[in-house]
Design goal:
By secondary structure, this protein is of the alpha+beta class. The protein has helices spanning about 25-40, 125-140, 150-165; strands spanning about 45-50, 60, 70-80, 85-90, 95-105, 105-110, 120-125. The chain has one domain (about 10-165): Peptide deformylase (Peptide Deformylase, Alpha-Beta Complex), CATH 3.90.45.10. A hairpin with a 5-residue loop joins strand 6 and strand 7 (about 120-125). About 30% of the residues are buried.
């Protein structure tokens, strides 16, 4: 397994709509496991393929406190959502920024596993719900800062550009 490089805002791939996975092979499996290793190494709870430069609908996540229940979701889609709640979010691709985002309080997601079998995560709440929505947004070219008011988003973009100039 290998640690992968995380793309950071404003990299254009982060704004691309990812394409469905049609080939379920050992390369896809290796990529998913490398993504999990990268996510755990960064102490994150989720990672979408476009964050590491691949434009396929693939994400990994583990919303447990002890990192004991990883998910690999291929071609995920939210098929039901209920309620609203706000929670603080951050993102490996938008480093050092944490803001409150309003999302659905509960979601049901349909996806495929690494072999192509369809499965459903039903009535996800809390961190799992937020993570599923955040990572699926990535696959749709949307970032969590897009939920902010134009003024807040502009302030964050300015801060991120300053940080990029320092590196």
């Amino acid at each position: 397994m290998a640690l992968l490089t995380i793309l950071t805002y404003p990299h254009p791939i982060l704004r691309k709509q990812c394409t469905p996975v049609t080939v379920f092979d050992v390369q896809l499996e290796k990529l998913a496991h490398d993504m999990l290793e990268t996510m755990y190494d960064d102490e994150a709870v989720g990672l979408a393929a476009n964050q590491i430069g691949f434009t396929q609908r693939l994400l990994v996540l583990d919303a447990t406190e002890d990192a004991s229940h990883p998910y690999i979701l291929v071609n995920p889609e939210i098929i039901a959502q209920k309620g609203k709640e706000k929670s603080k979010e951050g993102c490996m691709s938008v480093p050092d920024i944490y803001v409150e985002v309003e999302r659905a309080a509960e979601v049901t997601v349909r996806a495929q596993d690494i072999k192509g079998n369809v499965f459903t995560i039903e009535n996800a709440t809390g961190l799992l719900s937020n993570c599923l929505q955040h990572e699926i947004d990535h696959l749709n070219g949307k970032l969590f800062i897009d939920y902010l008011s134009p003024l807040k988003k502009q302030m964050i973009e300015k801060k991120l550009k300053k940080m990029a100039c320092r590196t």
